[in-house]
Amino acid sequence: MQHTPHQYLSVLTSLVAKKVFLGLLGLFLSLASLSYAQVTVRPSVEFQNLSYLNITKVQITETQTIVDLRYRCPYDNVSWACANKEFYIKGVYQTEKKRLLAAKNIPICDDKHWFTRKDTILDFQLIFPKLEAGIEKIDVIEGYGPNQFNFWGVKIINPKKEEKEIVNQTNIPPNITNNTTNTNKTPIKTTTKKTTPVVKKDTVKVAPVVKAEVKPTVTFNNKELKLKDSINVKITFDHASDVIEENSKPELNKLLDFMQKNPKLVILLEGHTEADEPSYTPKQKQSNLKLSIERLKSVKDFLTAKGVTPTRIQTQAYGGARPVSKDPAQNRRVVMKIIKF
Q1: Which CATH number fits domain 39-155: 1.10.287, 2.60.40, 1.20.140, 2.40.128?
Q2: Distance, CA of 52 to CA of 70 (rounded, Å)
Q3: Do you find a cis peptide bond into 110, omega within 30 degrees of 0?
Q4: How far apart are CA 156 and CA 63, in angstroms?
Q5: How far is Cα 194 from Cα 292, in angstroms, rounded to an integer?
Q6: How many other C-beta atoms lie within 10 A of the C-beta of residue 149?
């Protein structure tokens, strides 16, 4: 079939117009989605198993739930990170799981994002289906494998359908201007004060006294701790359980008293179980990791129930990956690390 130049021009014009229309439609839908977004910046988290990954924002649009995260590489040597395709979110008191749809700025496993330097920061997003209205706390779960990212009790803004959106307006005081006019239309005399010149006297310059830097310390169980120092907290649990044994209550109360006497202190609690044996299957190792997560949660729940702000207690679970002794009892431990004064 042959076409005249006029027909070619008509077809080209039609295609361009269609492309422009689709582009504007996409932009409109994107803006519309953003306009309805509920955004929670730096949401509070009841418990998380890794201290070097944090949720920075949660957005709920018309069609999606977007979780923004920041990862700070904790390793000195070459390492990598990726998002498990099994990632899901759910309401704390619900069973329905919203599975991962996509990820931005981080690859889906088995692809990897490589790090070559400690403390390198990676900001990325995980995208899930939209949450139902009214869910105010969610869990963000990757799994129970080594170093997988899990968050429990993430508090978000997600009002019920019948609730109207409340917009907080900042009260801005009106500008105060001097509109005083001279009604008599007579010139207003202005007077200027005479200033007496200041005569500078000869002064002797004294070298400033340089004080030696004193690093802050705190004391726990008669041991003086500085920033990044660690100490074992003698808390024991029932066998294969997250229930704290009764004989550990005095130690728990010491920890509570320590946090109350140092109200600006932020600590990291590390949880460990008996060592992973060489013969353990991945499922057995995951079971140990999950147990250390649940035990840390028991300790944190005790402290927060007594009034300690949750953000002052960070947690890191290791399961049985870091034994310190051949004695199983020595490996079942909670370690406290000072991370901020």
Answers
A1: 2.60.40
A2: 8
A3: yes
A4: 16
A5: 77
A6: 22
Using the CB atoms, write b or e for 94-111: b if 16+ within 10 Å. Answer: eeebbebeebeebeebee
Q: At what angle do helices 249-261 and 282-305 cross, to 10 degrees?
A: 60
Spatial separation of the C-alpha atoms in residues 51 and 70, rounded to whole Å:
11
As a whole number of angstroms, the distance between CA 316 and CA 334 comes to 10
Strands 218-220, 223-225: pairing is antiparallel
Specify the pTM.
0.50
For the chain, what is the radius of gyration of the CA atoms?
30
In this predicted model, what pLDDT tens digit does every residue of 248-263 receive, in sequence order?
Answer: 999 999 999 999 999 9
Specify which residues 55 forms β-bridges with. 69
Is the model's pLDDT at 111 over the cut of 50? Answer: yes
Superfamily of domain 218-340: OmpA-like domain (3.30.1330.60)
The tokens 């907290």 sit on which residue? 233
Task: State both tokens at 84.
Answer: 């498990």
Q: How many CA atoms lie within 13 A of 336 on its CB side?
A: 29
What residue ranges do the domains of the chain occupy?
39-155, 218-340
Q: Any idea what the Cα angle at residue 240 is, between residues 235 and 242, rounded to 5°?
A: 50
Is residue 159 packed enough to be buried (19+ CB in 10 Å), middle (13-18) or exposed (0-12)? Answer: middle
Check if 39-155 and 218-340 are the same fold: no
CA distance 55 to 43: 7
Confidence category of residue 241, pLDDT binned at 50, 70, 90: confident
